[in-house]
Prior knowledge:
Helix content: 10-25%
Structural class: alpha+beta
Shape: globular
Largest sheet: 4 strands, antiparallel
Number of helices: 2
Number of strands: 4
Order of helices and strands: HEEEEH
Oligomer: single chain
Amino acid sequence: MSADERDELPALTVGSVARDLRDGRTGDVMDVHPGRVWPRPVGGGREWDAGPDDIRPLTAYERHDARGLRTLP
Length: 73
């Protein structure tokens, strides 16, 4: 992913949905602090710790796909 593409993504905030680039896991962002992000698997489960460069917010299409909705409203 280029820097320009990354700039077009939504902000990584509590409540957003993100993908861990290290292993592809997708999770709801539970907390964000400088240098750390804590997502939890979509649908529940144990939070994990990631660095801000290891995780990126999902696009609108990816969010719907991650939640099993498959189509945009």
